[in-house]
Amino acid sequence: MEYNASVEEFRDDEYPNMTQGAYLDHGGTTIYARSLIAGFSQAMIGNLWGNPHSENLPAKLSGEMVDSIRAKTLDFLGADPEHFDLVFVANATAGIKLVADAFRDLGDKTPSKSFWYGCHSEAHTSLIGIRALAPGDYHCFKDDESVEEWISRPFNCPNQTRKGYPSSLGLFAYPGQSNLSGRRLPKTWPRKIRKHPQLRNTYTLFDAAALAMTSSLSSLFEDPLDAPDFTCLSLYKIFGFPDLGALVVRRASGHILCLRRYFGGGTVAQLSPLEDTRVMKKVPGLGNKYMSWNIHDGLEDGTLPFHSILALGIAIDTHLRLYGSMDVISRHCSYLARSLYEQLADLKHRDGSAVVELYADEPVMYGDPSAQGPTFAFNITREDGSYVPWTEVERLANNAGVYIRAGGVCCPGGVSRALKYEEWEWDRIFSSGHACGSSEQAVIHNKPTGIVRASLGAMTTKRDIEAFVSFLQSEFIFKKAAIPLLLGTSNELPIRETIHAIVLIATMAKKKSKQAAAAEGQDTTPDQVSQTQTQPSSTTTTNSSANGVQKKKSKASKETSSASSSQTLNICRNKHWRYISSYHGPWLQMPIEILETIANINYNTPRPRPIDPAVLFDLLKIRRLVDEATNLAVRAASDIASPVLTNVHGGLPGSGSMSALGMTGPGHGMKLSHKRKSQMREQASQKLSRAYHLDEIACSVATMQGASTIEEIGAVVLQRNPQDPDAKYVHFFHEKIPSRQLAESTSLQPLTEIIAERPNESEALRTRAIVRTFKEDYEGAAQDLTTALAVCRIHQQPHRPSEEVKSQQLQTGKRWRQEVAPAEKDQPSSLEIQLSFLRATTYLSLACQHIEHGLTPNQEQNGHVDSAKSNGKVDAESDGQESQKHDENSLLKQTEARKLVKKYAKWALRDLLTYLSHFEYAPNLPNLIAKDFNDRVNLSAQGARNPRPSEATYLLEPHTTYNLAELFAAVPPSDLPPYPNEEVISPNRQTQLPDPPTTCELLTYHPLITDALHSLLLCHCLIQTSAKEVQRHTYMAARLIRLADGYPIFQASRSPARSDWLEVLRRADDSWLQLSASWDTLCAPAPLPHYDTLPPGAANMHTGASRKEAAAAAASLINGGSNAGKSVPSAEEQRRLRMRERDQRVRVALSDQRVCDEDTFRAAIEAQEKRAEQEDRAAAAAAAASEVSPDGASNPDAHPKRWVIDDSKEYPVCTARATLIAQWVCEAPVVTGTTRRKKRTKRPEGKLDTLAASAEKMSLKDDAAAGT
Questions:
Q1: Are 775 and 705 in contact (CB under 8 A)?
Q2: Which residue ranges does the record annotate as region Disordered (predicted)?
């Protein structure tokens, strides 16, 4: 026995539907994994599957797939294909019927005109049903001892020799595990029957449906001589999906089944439609020299469920990836079964009698997988010894969110054995009218007619066991305690007084429960929590008693409170985070299925990928986690048990139709317990914490789109458990603080506590560093980020795709290549990218801090004046000496400050190059690759899942790619196209239209890449790189910025560094860089590949989708419908739209780090309004320009615009950093002595080190220096 703790780690991700309750009916079916469904969906859409009976390519693909998965299934079961064959059937019952039909047809040819059939009493009804095909020649064995006796002495068995043919055809069937109690029957009977000379014509049918769910069958098939002849099982009881069964046939016995009379579909090779005798079946031994048939060829009637078989192969791979082997599952379930048995045995009434009457053999064997499975059959008894009806137990369990099964569970022999029913009692049950379904009678003559069954599975956890035991305790022990007779017995009071007493007791109980809930604080609503004013200190919990005080406020106090609240706007702390605007875009609203499809398309696109896969996969995970957390929080707040009744925005989908059916109301008739609500809120906070760990900026943007309930989820969980680190982390982001007062209203203590508790995680260090930058503690921020990078590189494994992913990526040139959908463990992480960028900006801020001290002050502010101010008692005689000394000290401080400026700027440049080295640039990417990406995105927006790439892209010649750091090396690559070219410098110049280019430039996009490129130029300004080199880097940065396009995930972002760079260019001397064009012209978006370069008249030949069409399709899906026929909004709708736009502008302005006072705030708002007006005019102009002129020529100005265009010129906000850097460029003298140069040895030509490589070698030394 061994508990599989890894299930706890992946269950919420792989089995999110299990958060609906404690599922304990794995004996009916187990639960399918999320990745199984996702993989099946991708495999279905990624390939064209045909009917395996055809001969076309899709049909051959399906046939090869079926054969491959048939062999994979045999291997999973431990059956050697040389000795066993596998027949796909609908379920275990279908396999049993297939065997029964074959024995019936063959039995008609025997002298007895029938066959003998025997089965065990604990067999499933599907096995008992075979007796209808063997009338008179049937025997049921009551127990294991009777079977052993029959095997040793067959002639003593009734009906075995009734017709005088002791060695005639026979079939013995029994289950591997009781469907009722989980008792496991011997596996040795097939071997004993086969070895007995008098039973040489008796075959064995083994029902492994219940056994295979949590046990390996390898020991059953290990020796073909000991294995059953026929073994049936239901595969959905192992994997949850697909709904498919299998019949494993021992090849030495398979000929029995091939002699059945029926044929049809693919089981016949040739026949004559007129003559009854002319038919050739697909049975082993028949066929021509080119083909020999297998057993399954003659038994699988009609077209196979090949789509379900495809899902089966993915299910096996998923099952092995999650659990490793069936032996691991067996040990896990045995551990839980033993634990549950011990807890059930401890449930006692007040008089010491047992609450649970468990039906298990003595001695109890729970924990021994060879004798007992993880299944419990029981009934609940009251204190007086009577039985609680099993129908009532099942109803109460459903209301409590515990899902079990009750009744006869298709095992009448097991019920009879457990409840000790005699034959006449069965007659009484029949005569009473009891039957499965609506006529069920749970108790007849004080004796139950069925049982309650709880069965465990591979994904069952300790939490499920605790929920089940807690349900039994709360329903059948605690609730049965007698109410104290406060006013005497009912016999001593008149009827009216009795009713009054009952009402009084009920009222007192309700008040008591409310007081207990308020004291415990676990059921506090989010609205109540939001009323409590939290203090920006290390205290992370709120005082729940404040809620009651606020409800008693007078009218005057309410007016005062509203007046004060109007003066100070309290918003969540994470809405102050920088770079939030960089992460806005359609990914927040588009259906998560489309986002996942685009992420996989992007990952499978040839390098350079259009968008950084690490950040895109992080966005996908964040969306999923935030949606799930919102769902849990809304359900807990609304008392809704099932997530089907909620959506991520906190509403009830289709509430109108639901109210018409009488289905509205909290919980759909089921009230959640306090413990269940607390667990749901804890799960929600854990999911939000994981999302913030991935990327706190992106998660902050995502939570702004969710329901308001999640804003208080951290505070609610902390009321119950003040030391919960996940809730602390979430509450840190969601705590309401005064607007624009982040530094004053934030304490680092909660983050310090999280770091101390989880030292191996660098995310909290990242968050603390960001807060330190708001507090202008840049040295502390740099130290935190350096530590975070070290922790990240030690504890985070570098991204290396699994062997399976690598093999799929290498499958080029194949017609039916399946797209790669990397598992979460194989997906790249963006954490190191984030830390490198943040540390670079921190070092750049540190450098700017020292600029003011490194510049020479003006004449009127230096010299004797400053000396006199600092020392007012200086007389005329000593003035010169003191002044000279002061000037020397000032000069020394200025020199040190200038060295610090260059040092920190170099460190910032090193980190920026490290950041840029994660992204790539292609100077000659074939247009077909860019077009294929756009077309596939367009198809995904129109509803296609995992659209296949064009086959033309498989045959393209390889193209060159560079990481961006190489472009800024001392010697850049030589094959780059010239930039700026004539088209950029002279856009209005008339030139002859050249042939459309077949290649284009492409850049891997990241939300922060524009800011990083501008920051790199600012670093070169501070380092005092030569003007010629700065010009080269400026052109290179412009080349890349014009290609930055976040389509279709990100929208235009505002770059603070771009504004600063523009200010530096404006203030600098015109002779400094001597750029050939303005910065806006140099960074003008490059023409879209393929679409913008088509010659006139070729537009009608283009069959692909344009960017506009893709954007329109995506917008249609995001908005929930087509844009066609859209009605004009009403006045009220227009007012609401304006209000939303105003709120959005305020949020954007507050998140802009350039906004520091009222004037800059108003400037940012006005700039946004101006840009919105221009966009409206541009949209109207584009609509007019899209119309074709009468002569058939299109408007040449109607070129599609790139998805991401940074309109920073609309934000004329000059920051202090821009002023300082511009002053440094204009006034600072050249600083020397900051770098120790070593004598360089001559190196062979072509092996020059890049700047990025040099910076990487210096990283350890610089990190150590930064941390001191």
A1: no
A2: 516-567, 798-827, 855-891, 1118-1143, 1170-1204, 1232-1268
Nearest CA to 936 out of 923, 924, 949 is that of 949
What per-residue confidence (pLDDT) applies to 272?
Answer: 58
pLDDT score for 868: 39
Burial of 853 (0-12, 13-18, 19+ CB in 10 A): middle
How far apart, in Å, are the Cα atoms of 187 and each of 123, 140, 151, 217, 360? 15, 18, 14, 10, 19
- Mean pLDDT within 767-777: 92
Tens of pLDDT, residues 481-529: 433 333 333 333 343 333 333 333 344 444 444 444 444 333 443 333 3
The answer to whether residue 317 scores a pLDDT higher than 70 is: yes
843 burial (CB, 10 Å; 0-12 / 13-18 / 19+) is: buried
Q: Which residues of 953-986 are buried (b: 16+ CB within 10 A; e: fewer)?
A: beeeeebebbbbbbbbbeeeeeebeebbeeebee
Residue 1045's Cβ-count burial label (10 Å; 0-12, 13-18, 19+) is buried
Retrieve residue 581's tokens.
Answer: 């605007």
Other CB atoms within 10 Å distance of the CB of residue 813: 8
Amino acid at 226: D
Check 140, 410, 572, 1214 and give the catalytic one. Answer: 410
Q: How many CB atoms lie within 10 A of CB 491?
A: 6
Which has the minimum average pLDDT: 57-66, 347-356, 868-877? 868-877
Which tokens belong to 425?
């009692």
- Retrieve residue 1001's tokens: 């430039």
For residue 480, what are its two tokens? Answer: 């049965």
Q: What's the one-letter identity of residue 112?
A: S
Distance set, CA 184 to CA 24, 122, 149, 421, 1264 (Å): 19, 11, 19, 21, 64
Residue with more model confidence, 717 or 982: 717
Average pLDDT, the chain: 77
Q: Are 1037 and 1016 in contact (CB under 8 A)?
A: yes
Structure tokens at 316: 């096996």
Could you write out the DSSP letters of every residue in 797-859?
Answer: PP----HHHHHHHT--S-TTPPPP---GGGS---HHHHHHHHHHHHHHHHHHHTHHHHSPPPG
Helix (H) or strand (E) holding 247: strand 245-250
Beta-carbon contacts of residue 851 (< 8 Å; ≥ 6 apart): 897, 901, 1022, 1220, 1221, 1223, 1224, 1228
- How does DSSP classify residue 1103? -
DSSP character for 344?
A: H
- E strand residue ranges, 662-788: 736-738
Question: Does residue 1 have a pLDDT over 70?
Answer: yes
Q: Report which of 802, 846, 847, 834 is spatially closest to residue 820, judged by C-alpha positions.
A: 802
Q: Rounded to an integer, what distance in angstroms lies between the CA atom of residue 1102 and that of residue 1089?
A: 13
For 1043, counting Cβ atoms within 10 Å of its Cβ (0-12 exposed, 13-18 middle, 19+ buried), the class is: buried
CA distances in angstroms from 982 to 193, 355, 432, 968, 1087, listed in the order given? 91, 89, 97, 23, 14
CB 618 within 8 A of CB 645: no
**What 3-state DSSP class applies to 1121?**
coil
pLDDT tens-digit readout, 628-647: 998 888 888 877 766 544 44
Contact 716, 644 (CB under 8 A): no
| Beta-sheet pairing, 202-207 with 230-234 | parallel
pLDDT at position 1200 is 47
Do 153 and 218 meet the contact criterion of CB atoms below 8 Å apart? no
* β-sheet bridge partners, residue 270: 280
Q: Between residues 725 and 1131, which one has the greater pLDDT?
A: 725
Task: State the sign of the Cα–Cα–Cα–Cα dihedral 1015, 1020, 1022, 1028.
Answer: negative
Specify whether 410 is catalytic: yes
Q: Which domains does the chain have, with CATH numbers?
A: 5-10+327-477 (3.90.1150.10), 25-324 (3.40.640.10), 573-642+672-797 (1.25.40), 922-987+997-1090+1144-1175+1206-1228 (no CATH)
